[in-house]
Amino acid sequence: MKIIMLGAPGAGKGTQAKKIAEKYKIPHVSTGDLFRSNISNNTDLGKEAKQYMDAGKLVPDELTVRMLLDRVAGDDCKNGYVLDGFPRTIAQAEVLEQEVAKLNDKIDYAINVEVPDENIVKRMGGRRACTKCGATYHIEHVPPKKEGICDNCGSELVLRSDDAPETVNKRLGVYHEQTQPLIDFYGKRNILFEVDGTQDTQKVFSDIVKILGE
Ligand code: ADP
Ligand code: ADP
Ligand code: ZN
After folding, report:
1. Which H or E element spans position 212?
2. 196-202 long-range Cβ contacts below 8 angstroms, 24+ apart
3. Are 58 and 159 in contact, with CB atoms under 8 Å apart?
4. Sheet holding 192-196, edge to edge
5. What is residue 162's predicted lDDT score, i.e. its pLDDT?
6. Which whole number is the average pLDDT over 50-69?
7. Which pLDDT belongs to residue 66?
8. Which of 40, 59, 84, 138 is least surrounded by Cβ atoms within 10 Å, i.e. has the fewest?
9. Whose CA is nearest to atom 15 of ligand 1?
Protein backbone atom coordinates (compact mmCIF):
# COMPACT_ATOMS: atom_id res chain seq x y z
CA MET A 1 0.00 0.00 0.00
CA LYS A 2 1.62 3.24 -1.17
CA ILE A 3 -0.28 6.31 -0.05
CA ILE A 4 0.27 10.04 -0.56
CA MET A 5 -1.34 12.66 1.67
CA LEU A 6 -2.21 15.91 -0.11
CA GLY A 7 -3.49 19.10 1.48
CA ALA A 8 -2.54 22.60 2.59
CA PRO A 9 -0.14 23.12 5.49
CA GLY A 10 -2.18 22.42 8.62
CA ALA A 11 -4.92 20.45 6.85
CA GLY A 12 -4.24 17.48 9.12
CA LYS A 13 -2.02 15.36 6.86
CA GLY A 14 0.36 14.46 9.67
CA THR A 15 -2.43 13.68 12.13
CA GLN A 16 -4.13 11.32 9.66
CA ALA A 17 -0.88 9.83 8.30
CA LYS A 18 0.06 8.69 11.82
CA LYS A 19 -3.32 6.96 12.23
CA ILE A 20 -3.00 5.30 8.81
CA ALA A 21 0.52 4.11 9.63
CA GLU A 22 -0.69 2.54 12.85
CA LYS A 23 -3.77 0.83 11.41
CA TYR A 24 -2.23 -0.48 8.20
CA LYS A 25 1.22 -1.16 9.71
CA ILE A 26 3.24 0.85 7.20
CA PRO A 27 5.82 3.56 7.96
CA HIS A 28 4.81 7.22 8.16
CA VAL A 29 7.32 9.18 6.09
CA SER A 30 7.18 12.95 6.63
CA THR A 31 9.67 15.13 4.74
CA GLY A 32 9.00 17.95 7.26
CA ASP A 33 9.97 15.60 10.13
CA LEU A 34 13.05 14.40 8.21
CA PHE A 35 14.17 18.01 7.70
CA ARG A 36 13.49 18.88 11.35
CA SER A 37 15.50 15.90 12.55
CA ASN A 38 18.38 17.01 10.28
CA ILE A 39 18.09 20.48 11.81
CA SER A 40 18.23 19.20 15.38
CA ASN A 41 21.22 17.02 14.48
CA ASN A 42 22.86 20.05 12.88
CA THR A 43 23.65 18.25 9.59
CA ASP A 44 24.63 20.10 6.40
CA LEU A 45 21.25 19.21 4.91
CA GLY A 46 19.54 20.61 8.01
CA LYS A 47 21.46 23.89 7.81
CA GLU A 48 20.57 24.29 4.15
CA ALA A 49 16.89 23.35 4.59
CA LYS A 50 16.31 25.59 7.63
CA GLN A 51 16.76 28.83 5.67
CA TYR A 52 13.97 27.87 3.28
CA MET A 53 11.67 26.50 5.98
CA ASP A 54 11.95 29.61 8.16
CA ALA A 55 11.14 31.76 5.14
CA GLY A 56 8.00 29.71 4.43
CA LYS A 57 9.46 28.49 1.12
CA LEU A 58 9.90 25.00 -0.24
CA VAL A 59 13.30 23.36 0.12
CA PRO A 60 14.72 22.88 -3.42
CA ASP A 61 13.54 19.71 -5.18
CA GLU A 62 17.01 18.28 -5.57
CA LEU A 63 17.73 18.15 -1.82
CA THR A 64 14.21 17.02 -0.96
CA VAL A 65 14.02 14.24 -3.54
CA ARG A 66 17.40 12.80 -2.56
CA MET A 67 16.41 12.70 1.11
CA LEU A 68 13.02 11.12 0.38
CA LEU A 69 14.30 8.45 -2.02
CA ASP A 70 16.95 7.54 0.51
CA ARG A 71 14.27 7.04 3.14
CA VAL A 72 11.87 4.96 1.03
CA ALA A 73 14.74 2.72 -0.08
CA GLY A 74 14.76 1.47 3.52
CA ASP A 75 13.78 -2.14 4.18
CA ASP A 76 10.73 -1.12 6.23
CA CYS A 77 9.23 0.60 3.15
CA LYS A 78 9.17 -2.57 1.02
CA ASN A 79 5.46 -3.23 1.67
CA GLY A 80 4.40 0.37 1.33
CA TYR A 81 4.36 3.68 3.16
CA VAL A 82 2.29 6.76 3.76
CA LEU A 83 3.99 9.92 2.49
CA ASP A 84 3.15 13.12 4.35
CA GLY A 85 4.35 16.38 2.83
CA PHE A 86 5.84 14.79 -0.30
CA PRO A 87 5.42 15.39 -3.22
CA ARG A 88 4.86 19.14 -3.02
CA THR A 89 5.73 19.99 -6.63
CA ILE A 90 4.96 18.40 -10.00
CA ALA A 91 8.68 17.76 -10.47
CA GLN A 92 8.78 15.79 -7.20
CA ALA A 93 5.68 13.82 -8.22
CA GLU A 94 7.26 12.91 -11.55
CA VAL A 95 10.47 11.66 -9.95
CA LEU A 96 8.50 9.59 -7.44
CA GLU A 97 6.40 8.07 -10.20
CA GLN A 98 9.52 7.09 -12.17
CA GLU A 99 11.29 5.63 -9.14
CA VAL A 100 8.27 3.57 -8.12
CA ALA A 101 7.84 2.36 -11.72
CA LYS A 102 11.44 1.07 -11.68
CA LEU A 103 10.27 -1.35 -8.97
CA ASN A 104 7.34 -2.39 -11.20
CA ASP A 105 5.08 -0.73 -8.71
CA LYS A 106 2.75 2.28 -8.45
CA ILE A 107 1.26 4.73 -5.97
CA ASP A 108 -2.15 3.37 -4.92
CA TYR A 109 -3.90 6.33 -3.27
CA ALA A 110 -3.51 10.12 -3.19
CA ILE A 111 -5.76 11.36 -0.38
CA ASN A 112 -6.56 15.07 -0.45
CA VAL A 113 -7.49 16.48 2.95
CA GLU A 114 -9.55 19.50 2.04
CA VAL A 115 -9.62 22.50 4.46
CA PRO A 116 -10.33 26.13 3.43
CA ASP A 117 -7.60 28.75 4.01
CA GLU A 118 -9.59 30.62 6.73
CA ASN A 119 -9.63 27.52 8.95
CA ILE A 120 -5.93 26.89 8.35
CA VAL A 121 -4.65 30.16 9.77
CA LYS A 122 -6.72 29.61 12.95
CA ARG A 123 -5.56 26.02 13.31
CA MET A 124 -1.86 26.75 12.95
CA GLY A 125 -1.82 29.25 15.82
CA GLY A 126 -2.99 26.41 18.07
CA ARG A 127 -0.63 23.72 16.77
CA ARG A 128 1.99 22.54 19.26
CA ALA A 129 4.74 20.11 18.34
CA CYS A 130 6.96 17.91 20.47
CA THR A 131 10.62 18.96 20.27
CA LYS A 132 11.70 15.34 20.67
CA CYS A 133 9.35 12.82 19.00
CA GLY A 134 7.52 15.08 16.52
CA ALA A 135 4.02 14.37 17.91
CA THR A 136 1.54 17.14 17.10
CA TYR A 137 -1.25 18.58 19.23
CA HIS A 138 -3.74 21.42 19.11
CA ILE A 139 -4.42 23.53 22.20
CA GLU A 140 -8.21 23.31 21.65
CA HIS A 141 -8.96 20.44 19.28
CA VAL A 142 -6.27 17.87 20.14
CA PRO A 143 -4.92 18.87 23.58
CA PRO A 144 -2.20 16.88 25.37
CA LYS A 145 -3.18 15.33 28.72
CA LYS A 146 -0.89 17.77 30.54
CA GLU A 147 -0.53 21.30 29.13
CA GLY A 148 2.74 21.89 27.28
CA ILE A 149 3.95 18.27 27.71
CA CYS A 150 4.02 15.48 25.11
CA ASP A 151 1.78 12.47 25.95
CA ASN A 152 4.19 10.10 24.18
CA CYS A 153 7.55 11.06 25.59
CA GLY A 154 7.09 13.75 28.25
CA SER A 155 9.11 16.38 26.36
CA GLU A 156 8.24 20.04 25.96
CA LEU A 157 5.72 21.18 23.33
CA VAL A 158 6.47 24.29 21.25
CA LEU A 159 4.90 26.48 18.59
CA ARG A 160 6.93 25.76 15.44
CA SER A 161 8.88 28.83 14.28
CA ASP A 162 7.32 28.50 10.81
CA ASP A 163 3.78 28.47 12.30
CA ALA A 164 3.81 32.24 12.98
CA PRO A 165 0.84 33.83 11.11
CA GLU A 166 2.97 35.73 8.51
CA THR A 167 4.87 32.57 7.62
CA VAL A 168 1.66 30.53 7.47
CA ASN A 169 0.24 32.99 4.95
CA LYS A 170 3.37 32.68 2.83
CA ARG A 171 3.19 28.89 3.00
CA LEU A 172 -0.43 28.95 1.90
CA GLY A 173 0.58 31.04 -1.12
CA VAL A 174 3.32 28.55 -1.97
CA TYR A 175 0.82 25.71 -1.52
CA HIS A 176 -1.69 27.18 -3.99
CA GLU A 177 1.00 27.94 -6.53
CA GLN A 178 3.19 24.83 -6.39
CA THR A 179 1.38 22.01 -4.60
CA GLN A 180 -2.31 22.34 -5.48
CA PRO A 181 -1.63 21.37 -9.13
CA LEU A 182 -0.90 17.86 -7.79
CA ILE A 183 -4.64 17.38 -7.22
CA ASP A 184 -5.07 17.42 -10.98
CA PHE A 185 -1.95 15.35 -11.54
CA TYR A 186 -3.30 12.47 -9.42
CA GLY A 187 -6.87 13.03 -10.63
CA LYS A 188 -5.68 12.22 -14.14
CA ARG A 189 -4.16 8.98 -12.85
CA ASN A 190 -7.48 8.01 -11.23
CA ILE A 191 -6.03 7.60 -7.75
CA LEU A 192 -7.30 10.85 -6.21
CA PHE A 193 -9.64 10.63 -3.20
CA GLU A 194 -11.03 13.66 -1.36
CA VAL A 195 -11.93 13.90 2.32
CA ASP A 196 -13.48 16.81 4.23
CA GLY A 197 -10.73 17.84 6.66
CA THR A 198 -12.91 20.29 8.61
CA GLN A 199 -14.59 17.42 10.47
CA ASP A 200 -13.18 16.16 13.78
CA THR A 201 -10.08 13.98 13.51
CA GLN A 202 -11.92 10.67 14.15
CA LYS A 203 -14.53 11.40 11.46
CA VAL A 204 -11.82 12.35 8.94
CA PHE A 205 -10.06 9.08 9.73
CA SER A 206 -13.21 6.98 9.35
CA ASP A 207 -13.74 8.56 5.91
CA ILE A 208 -10.17 7.59 5.01
CA VAL A 209 -10.73 4.02 6.19
CA LYS A 210 -13.76 3.82 3.87
CA ILE A 211 -11.41 4.63 0.99
CA LEU A 212 -8.55 2.32 2.00
CA GLY A 213 -10.71 -0.54 3.26
CA GLU A 214 -10.87 -2.11 6.73
P1 ADP B 1 3.10 21.17 7.33
O2 ADP B 1 2.95 20.16 8.43
O3 ADP B 1 2.69 22.51 7.75
O4 ADP B 1 2.47 20.76 6.04
P5 ADP B 1 5.78 20.16 6.95
O6 ADP B 1 6.22 19.76 8.30
O7 ADP B 1 5.29 19.11 6.04
O8 ADP B 1 4.67 21.31 7.09
O9 ADP B 1 6.93 20.97 6.21
C10 ADP B 1 7.59 22.04 6.84
C11 ADP B 1 8.49 22.71 5.83
O12 ADP B 1 9.48 21.80 5.35
C13 ADP B 1 7.80 23.23 4.56
O14 ADP B 1 7.21 24.51 4.74
C15 ADP B 1 8.97 23.26 3.57
O16 ADP B 1 9.83 24.37 3.82
C17 ADP B 1 9.75 22.00 3.97
N18 ADP B 1 9.29 20.83 3.19
C19 ADP B 1 8.66 19.74 3.67
N20 ADP B 1 8.39 18.87 2.69
C21 ADP B 1 8.84 19.43 1.54
C22 ADP B 1 8.86 19.04 0.16
N23 ADP B 1 8.30 17.88 -0.25
N24 ADP B 1 9.42 19.89 -0.73
C25 ADP B 1 9.99 21.02 -0.35
N26 ADP B 1 10.01 21.46 0.91
C27 ADP B 1 9.45 20.68 1.87
P1 ADP C 1 -0.39 19.04 8.46
O2 ADP C 1 0.48 17.83 8.67
O3 ADP C 1 -1.29 18.92 7.28
O4 ADP C 1 0.38 20.31 8.47
P5 ADP C 1 -1.30 18.56 11.22
O6 ADP C 1 -1.71 17.15 11.24
O7 ADP C 1 -0.01 18.93 11.86
O8 ADP C 1 -1.38 19.13 9.70
O9 ADP C 1 -2.49 19.43 11.86
C10 ADP C 1 -2.39 20.85 11.99
C11 ADP C 1 -2.98 21.28 13.33
O12 ADP C 1 -4.39 21.07 13.34
C13 ADP C 1 -2.45 20.49 14.54
O14 ADP C 1 -2.43 21.35 15.66
C15 ADP C 1 -3.47 19.37 14.72
O16 ADP C 1 -3.51 18.91 16.06
C17 ADP C 1 -4.76 20.08 14.33
N18 ADP C 1 -5.74 19.20 13.65
C19 ADP C 1 -5.49 18.14 12.84
N20 ADP C 1 -6.65 17.61 12.37
C21 ADP C 1 -7.65 18.36 12.90
C22 ADP C 1 -9.10 18.33 12.78
N23 ADP C 1 -9.71 17.41 12.01
N24 ADP C 1 -9.80 19.27 13.45
C25 ADP C 1 -9.16 20.20 14.21
N26 ADP C 1 -7.82 20.30 14.35
C27 ADP C 1 -7.07 19.39 13.71
ZN1 ZN D 1 7.09 13.66 22.25
Report:
1. helix 201-212
2. 196/114, 197/7, 197/11, 197/12, 197/113, 197/114, 197/115, 198/114, 198/115, 198/116, 198/119, 200/141, 201/12, 201/15, 201/16, 201/19, 201/141, 201/142
3. no
4. 28-30, 81-84, 2-6, 109-114, 192-196
5. 92
6. 97
7. 97
8. 40
9. 58
Q: Show the DSSP H helices in 44-199 as ranges.
A: 44-54, 61-72, 90-102, 117-126, 165-174, 181-188
CB 58 within 8 A of CB 174: yes
**Which ligand is closest to the CA of 132, given by its number?**
3
Backbone angles phi, psi at 57, to 5 degrees: -100, 165
CA distance 119 to 6: 16
pTM above 0.90, yes or no: yes
What lines the ligand 2 site, CB under 6 Å? 7, 9-15, 123, 126-127, 136-138, 141-142, 197, 200-201, 204
| Mean pLDDT (whole number) for 34-63 | 96
From 138, 134, 148, 180, select the one nearest 35 (Cα to Cα).
Answer: 134
Helices 61-72, 31-40: inter-axial angle, 10-degree rounding: 100
| Nearest by Cα to 179 from 91, 52, 98 | 91
